[in-house]
Here is the input.
Amino acid sequence: MLKRLPPKEREIVDLLYQGGEMTASEVVEALPDKLSRSAVRTMLRRLEEKGAVRRTESPRGFLFSPALSDQAARKSALGEIVRVFFNGSAAGAASALLGMSDNLDSGELDELEAMIARAREAKGAGR
Here is the structure.
């Protein structure tokens, strides 16, 4: 869903992922390209209608936050990258990441090994 958003709306959602819950005024202040408050409020309303943003009431006014958890958004975005650039092959994507192993420290490599071991266990348990 996020990939289909116009650039400015996507920028607002990205800000909300980075900054957490924000008021419309805080979004206006955080945007690098200054937009009017009414333009930002209109985009926030559209994002809410599209299901990309949630609005809650607070003593500070309405607070806006992403509708998808950051983990779900990352998984969705990564799934799209794997589909487009690696023909749907998670192994191909992992291989490309491991090709960048010069940038990984030993702790990150250990974490990857542990994740692979957990994935193997989960596959074995599901048989």
In short: The chain is about 60% helix and 10% strand. The helical segments are 7-19, 24-30, 37-50, 70-85, 90-98, 106-125. The radius of gyration is 19 Å. The chain has a mean pLDDT of 88.
